[in-house]
Amino acid sequence: MLRNFIDISRISLAEFPFMCHQIPERSFTYKGSQFPVCARCTGVIIGQLFAIISIISVPIRFGVITYISLMLPALIDWTIQEFTKIKSNNLRRMVTGTLLGFGYAMTLFALISFTVNF
User: Fold this and answer.
1) Are 28 and 11 in contact (CB under 8 A)?
2) Which of 2, 29, 65, 103 could form a disulfide with 71 if both were Cys (CB 3.0 to 4.6 A apart)?
3) What torsion do the CA atoms of 41, 42, 45, 47 make, to the nearest 10 degrees?
4) 34-77 pLDDT, tens per residue?
C-alpha cells in the first residue's frame, strides 16, 4: 500500500516540476519505488515538520540570524555540487535539506510573529 502511495505521489508531483526535480539517483527508494521527492526535498519536509513540533512544544526561540544560518549548509552543498566536480550524496542532501527546512520554517514563523506583534 505504501509503495502504491509513493508511486502515485511521484507521478502527481511530476506535473509540477518546479517543486522537485525527482532525479532518480538523487532520490531515495522504498521496495523499488522512487520517493515522490528527492533526498534534499525529503529533508526539507522533515525539517519543516520538526519546526512545527518545535513551535508547538518548545517555548525557546532564537534570532532570525540563527535560523538563516541553518539554511547555509544546503546552499554551500548545492553550490559545490553545481560548480565543481565534487558530487554530494543523498545522506548529505537529506541532512542539509532538514536544516534548510527547519531554518526556513522557523524564519517564517519568527517574521510572522514579529509582524503580528509589531
Assistant:
1) no
2) 103
3) -100
4) 788 888 889 999 999 999 999 999 887 888 899 999 999 999 99
Q: Is the dihedral of CA 100, 101, 102, 103 positive or negative?
A: positive
Q: List the one residue out of 57, 31, 50, 35 whose CA is nearest residue 95.
A: 50
Give the separation between CA 64 and CA 12, rounded to whole angstroms. Answer: 34
Residues 38, 26 contacting (CB under 8 angstroms): yes
Beta strands in the chain (DSSP E): 29-30, 33-34
Name the strand (E) or helix (H) holding 20. none
The model's pLDDT over 7-35, given as tens digits with 9 standing for 90+, comes to: 555 555 555 555 677 777 777 778 888 78
- Helix or strand (DSSP H, E) at 19: none
Phi, psi of 89 (to 5 degrees): -125, 170
Q: How far apart are CA 101 and CA 54, in angstroms?
A: 13
CA distance 43 to 99: 8
